[in-house]
Amino acid sequence: MRRIGILCFLFFSLTSLFSVELVLINKTETPLFEVYAVPADTENWGYDKLPFDVILPGDYVVLEVELDEEKPINFRFVDEDGDLYLKYNVDISSRRKILILPEDHQLLSSEGLIRFTLVNKTGSVIRALYISSETEDEWGDNLLDEFLLESGEMILDLQTSGRSSFYDIRLELAGESIVKKRVFISDRARVLLTLH
Fold first, then answer.
1. Contacts of 7 (CB under 8 A, 6+ apart)
2. Domains of the chain from N-terminus onward
């Protein structure tokens, strides 16, 4: 009988380690219809955590999710127009209130482009730059065209690719090619390119 009690205690203790209660507060001016919460190292968003609920502007919901609170979490919220609000690498070990703010809104142009700033910190001249969604197998065209990117920055437009905000980047330097995997790129982002 004592073994059963110990096993039950261990089972409930272990399952509660991964069950986290979060308060999601909508500080935007639009209702949020979908909520996704996944570990930051996860490659896809999984399923909607609030399939039958809406977070109205100025309102909140308490969400219980099974996540490891010691690991950073990525959040994705979808409003009534299908626009995205994204929060990346949120530390839920120190705070349980998550504010969804207007600045979390990911703006897309009417052509489905995101505009971001590329900063060259490699110490070398970048001769070619290729960016593809992490789900694609091909690199596509050189985004620098016939330009070179020396130490400094350049504003680029990138065609969005479905539901992913993570991209692979290939840099062509003098005599070497470097690939950066799973780089987050959003509208108005600054992407720092280094050799490491």
1. none
2. 2-106 (2.60.40), 113-193 (2.60.40.2890)
